[in-house]
Amino acid sequence: MPRILIVDDDHGLLESLSRLITLRIASPTVDCCDSAIAALQRVQDGDYDAIISDIKMPVMDGMAFMMKVKKLRPDIPTLLITGHGDHDLAVHALNAGAYAFVSKPLDRDFFVAWLKRALDLRQLHRQAEEQNTELERMLTNVVIDSQRQTAEAEQAKLLLQVLLDHIPDGVTIAGGPPEYPIIANSKRAQEVVGIHGRRNVCALG
Fold first, then answer.
1. What is the DSSP string of 69-81?
2. Are the C-beta atoms of 68 and 13 separated by less than 8 Å?
3. What is the pLDDT of residues 48-76, one digit of tens each?
4. pTM of the model
5. Scanning 21, 24, 149, 197, which has the fewest C-beta atoms within 10 Å of its C-beta?
6. CA 179 to CA 189: how far, in whole Å?
7. What is the DSSP string of 142-187?
8. CA angle 116, 76, 50 (to 5 degrees)
């Protein structure tokens, strides 16, 4: 279910765009703001799949708003709308990072087509993020398992060396790690191997 934010000081356009998106996009959640300042708070509080913003707005225009959004959430595609049909402004907006630039009066089919492309792009980014997260999790587990196995191997190696060093004290080793049985033939041998709590240690005598 895509989340879409519309920003425009024209309440009539906010209503018409919200209605159009609801009719042409499957199961959207549409939030509307009549100022860039209020919209920035929405972006800070929650993630969106696409943002649609007018360029000409008081206090903060659409270009300044888009640049702030890019700093907060750089992966959200932003579609800018203007009623001035300024080619230089369109080029500047696209170079600054706008996903698309749409002029008023809106061609509804053209607008919806660009919005759907923006939503598809956002979905691809999300999938890539999820795959990267899963790969990082798997890599972390591999590293942890490797470290655990290395530690266990070092522990077994040290124990084996201790046992070998104390064979004259009455320690007998049968088989090989990790499940080798240890036979402690004397009290001294039992002290060496720490017989209490070790399931693979047998005490003789």
1. HHHH-TTS-EEEE
2. no
3. 999 999 998 999 999 999 999 999 999 99
4. 0.66
5. 197
6. 19
7. HHHHHHHHHHHHHHHHHHHHHHHHTGGGTEEE-S-TTS--EEE-SH
8. 35
